[in-house]
Amino acid sequence: MILKNSPLFEISQNEIFLMSKFVITENLNPHIKAFSNTCQKDIDAVYHEEMELLKNSKIFIFKNELDELIGTIRVLRWDFISPLPIQKSYGVNPFLCIEGEAINDIWHIGRLAIKKGIQDTNLLKKLLVCAIAPVCAHKDNIAFAEIDAEMLRVLRLLGIKAKTVGKSREYLGCDNIPVSISYHGLIDFYNENKHMVSTQKNIVLSGENYKLPNKVVFSTDTLNYTLV
């Protein structure tokens, strides 16, 4: 297997649909034997959600020498208006997980999928580096994600310090656990592996359009943001 030199930073609308299908089919519950109408509904749901979130997110995909999709991941900067997946599906209020710490930006990492049969741990590391690069741009950043127990174990083995912030539940055919990961839980892994992705300048999203609105500024004593 040959990886292309770098992820594709800008992908077409059609490729977002292909990414959505890839995420569902590669992460299917192993007990599901055939592609069903439920799977198609899940693909459509992922596609529409990613299209709605696209203006605040970057999707990274890797392809092999045959131009086949072999890995995906997405990082989203929260605009503090649209509900994050961890809020909608798990009822987790990100602000209640911060525990009074200073926060710069809140991120969500999702749509991680790797083609079945690929045992290259470097591919996983490259996908993770792409997604966490903007989180590691500021010491007061934090990220949220929903992952299964096996991936949580893998992340911890890689040195990524993820904290469970809610109860696990089934989502898109898998039992996933909501977690938070601070800058400090990511920076060691990032510094050790950032050399694996050649084009760093394209990874960090510009913060100019995503400032925290004044109406949701909060103190450690009183939260004035309503869970959506």
Quick overview:
With 228 residues, the chain is an alpha+beta fold. It has 6 helices and 7 strands.
Report what the structure shows.
Strands 1, 2, 3, 4, 5, 6 and 7 form a seven-stranded mixed beta sheet that branches. This protein has helices at residues 13-26, 37-53, 85-90, 121-132, 149-157, 183-193; strands at 57-63, 69-77, 106-114, 142-147, 163-164, 169-171, 174-182. The protein has six helices and seven strands; from the N terminus they run ααββαβαβαβββα. It is of the alpha+beta class. The protein has one domain: Gcn5-related N-acetyltransferase (GNAT) (Aminopeptidase, 3-Layer(aba) Sandwich). 30% of the residues lie in helices and 20% in strands. The N and C termini lie far apart (44 Å).
Give me the secondary-structure topology.
Elements lengths: L12 H14 L10 H17 L3 E7 L5 E9 L7 H6 L15 E9 L6 H12 L9 E6 L1 H9 L5 E2 L4 E3 L2 E9 H11 L35
Parallel strand pairs: 3-4
Antiparallel strand pairs: 1-2, 2-3, 4-7, 5-7, 6-7
Helix pairs in contact: 1-2, 4-6
